[in-house]
Specification:
single chain; about 280 residues; mainly beta; Jelly Rolls; seven-stranded mixed sheet; seven-stranded antiparallel sheet; globular; binds the ligand O=C(O)C(=O)C[C@H](O)C(=O)CO; binds zinc ion
Length: about 280
């Protein structure tokens, strides 16, 4: 498991494109037959991707957590971005179609990932945060996730936010997770931009073709930087940073948050006059 250290907004101003990418971008989460994870010191959130092929893959603590098993002191949200998946939790199986989410709480020792059909491997996106309490394992198909319409065609940001893990959805200790779908011909997300110093956030961009890119914006509102992101790459957003993007083509993204509060609506919107 790769470790990413946190930085502060003052040092961030001097970062080159390479430094930005090395510190915040997760380029290779999805590799066939592998489970890949990145441990961030922003709220100790772990971001991962798994593509089980011929054999199932076990959720493993490795040697970095120094716990007996991965979910000993953690919870995890799993969203399927590929073909049909089978996730087993303590012997109970859950089938996830594309865009379904499974929450697995603290205390579960045996979690495995498999593709329903090894010839059509699934892709599961994982985000995990520290947990102090056990919440029940829960599957939420996208049809049951709370939809919120936002934006407009005129602003090129007509989109729907689906919330899976949050105060009025699947219960968790601190992890919040959902997916935002842009309507066709809409390319902007999260503009006007916001920050929430109480929580870090991770974005995974997907449903993009090989040539498409998202210009992702981050940094303090008055010192923004950008990086180009490809399909199925994720980016860390520090609590002091905006997180917003515009695509060269249509795309979908998954957002996940952890930190001090559990209030999705706690966002400090940035006035356009303050964005630079
Ligand atoms: O489209 C959006 O806007 C989002 O999805 C915003 C995220 O949900 C977010 O940044 C929550 O803090
Ligand atoms: Zn946010």
């Amino acid at each position: 498991m790769e470790i990413r250290h946190a930085t502060n907004p003052t040092d961030f101003k001097s970062y080159t494109s390479d430094r930005l990418r090395n510190d915040f971008l997760m380029e290779n989460l999805f590799v066939p037959g592998e489970l890949n994870m990145v441990y961030s010191h922003y709220d100790r959130v772990i971001t991962g991707g798994v593509i089980p092929t011929t054999s199932e893959i076990r959720l493993d603590a490795g040697d970095k957590l120094r716990t007996e098993y991965f979910l000993e002191r953690r919870e995890i949200g799993i969203v399927n971005i590929g073909e049909k998946a089978v996730v087993t939790v303590e012997g109970e199986t859950f089938e996830l179609n594309k865009r379904d989410c499974l929450y697995v709480g603290k205390g579960n020792q045996n979690v495995t990932f498999a593709s329903a059909d090894p010839d059509k491997p699934t892709k599961l996106y994982l985000v995990s945060a520290n947990a102090h309490k056990e919440y029940p394992t829960q599957l939420m198909p996208i049809k049951d996730a709370t939809p919120t319409k936002l934006g407009s065609d005129a602003e090129s940001n007509n989109r729907t936010i689906y919330k899976y893990i949050h105060g009025d959805g699947i219960q968790s200790c601190q992890l919040m997770m959902g997916m935002t779908l842009l309507e066709p011909n809409n390319m902007w997300n999260t503009m006007p931009a916001h920050v929430h110093d109480r929580r870090m956030e991770v974005y995974l961009y997907f449903d993009m073709d090989e040539e498409s890119r998202v210009f992702h914006f981050m940094g303090e509102p008055k010192e923004t930087r950008h990086m180009l992101i490809r399909n199925e790459q994720a980016v860390l957003s520090p609590p002091w940073s905006i997180h917003s993007g515009v695509g060269t083509n249509n795309y979908t993204f998954i957002w996940a948050m952890a930190g001090e509060n559990y209030t999705f609506t706690d966002m400090d919107f940035v006035d356009m006059n303050d964005l630079r």
